[in-house]
Design goal:
mainly alpha, Hypothetical protein af1432, 11 helices, 68% helix, disordered C terminus
């Protein structure tokens, strides 16, 4: 990242990972860096947008954001919470970007992406698609996958089988590069939990079978 992107990252740190999702901001940023290079996106839009996209969760109470993970939630309940975190994220992003004197024409594009990154149907631009793809790739990363196993009490193979079909589903990812990364990550997760299961079965240390 260049100097101003680093300034955005540092300024946004107090608002990051506020949904029991430690590592989300860093991991999605790393995916965004890959995608923006491979797909020739605009780093000056994609990187600030992914850094700031989930800062809005910091303004919701634990009880509010836990609605998203509740088995009893209604579609309306979840939409209300997601819309609010997007609205709060736009406010924080505008504040941070003005604080670092970011170019106004880029701020407009970044805020438009954050405003509906969880709720928009379809993709409005390459940069918007890359941001949303990087966000979704989190759930295929080791940290994100393990978090969902624990949060929803899924068996690892069950979670694998639930999210694998999403990769190729229409409209889930913007670009083929993201699909390839997701398949690669999910293959790694399967190797990891298969080895862990074998280690447990054989009574050996996981590190000995990796």
């Amino acid at each position: 990242m260049n100097k101003i992107h680093t300034a955005i990252w540092n300024t946004a740190l107090p608002y990051q990972d506020k949904r029991d999702d430690a590592g989300h901001a860093f991991i999605t940023l790393e995916f965004a860096k890959q995608l923006v290079d491979l797909e020739q996106g605009n780093k000056d839009v994609v990187l600030p947008a992914i850094i700031l996209h989930d800062t809005g969760w910091s303004q919701l109470s634990r009880a509010e954001w836990q609605v998203v993970f509740s088995s009893e939630k209604t579609t309306e309940d979840e939409m209300t919470v997601r819309l609010r975190h997007q609205e709060e994220g736009v406010k924080i992003a505008r504040q941070v970007l003005h604080q670092v004197n970011y170019p106004e024409h880029l701020i407009v594009d970044i805020l438009e992406i954050i405003a509906e990154h969880d709720t928009r149907q379809g993709f409005i631009s390459k940069d918007e698609g890359l941001v949303r793809d990087a966000d979704k790739l989190w759930r295929f990363s080791k940290t994100g996958f393990d978090a969902d196993v624990e949060r929803f009490n899924f068996a690892p193979q069950s979670l694998h089988d639930r999210i694998h079909p999403q990769i190729a589903s229409d409209g889930f990812f913007y670009c083929e590069t993201s699909r390839e990364l997701a398949y690669l990550e999910l293959q790694r997760r399967q190797r990891e939990f298969t080895r862990a299961a074998l280690a447990h079965q054989n009574g050996t240390n996981y590190a000995q079978v990796v």
